[in-house]
Write a structure and sequence with these properties.
mainly alpha; 5 helices; 2 domains
């Protein structure tokens, strides 16, 4: 009986995931943090009154440090990877719709710069000004290979 219940539950989860994909809903994944989602969460945490402010400040500090560590050499940010913009990877036979690369995109970069600004980082700070200095090199969000355009 227990195995039947777990089988039914597994099939229901698979059906739910397929339906969500058809509707364009992202399925949460546990292994790869997402840069723009992290920026959104950090901005939301600014508005939360947490009973342990020291713990909250530590979590926010680590989140911002992680965001900064994900900045690409061109000054922008991609969705999941850092400096993963080598076009030859798209020629690998098992590459799924050019999803092997994760170049900087304007939408993700804007979200991170917005987050840094909300935390009081000045526009002159190298992390904030680097994207504006190289905007012509940053792919639009719908570029093939970007997380949004894949």
């Amino acid at each position: 009986m227990l195995s039947n219940r777990s089988s039914v539950r597994r099939l229901a989860n698979q059906k739910q995931r397929r339906r969500a994909r058809r509707l364009g809903i992202r399925i949460p994944q546990r292994f790869y943090p997402d840069v723009d989602d992290t920026a959104f969460v950090l901005m939301a945490l600014q508005r939360v009154k947490y009973p342990d402010p020291t713990r909250m400040e530590g979590a926010i500090r680590r989140g911002i440090q992680w965001l900064l560590s994900m900045q690409n050499r061109d000054g922008g940010w991609g969705a999941f990877d850092r400096d993963n913009d080598r076009g030859f990877l798209c020629n690998i036979p098992f590459a799924d719709h050019n999803a092997m690369i994760d170049p900087s995109t304007a939408d993700v970069t804007a979200r991170v710069v917005e987050c840094l600004g909300r935390f009081g980082w000045p526009a002159e700070h190298p992390a904030s000004s680097a994207p504006s200095n190289s905007c012509s090199k940053i792919s639009p969000a719908t570029a093939p290979g970007s997380a949004a355009g894949a």
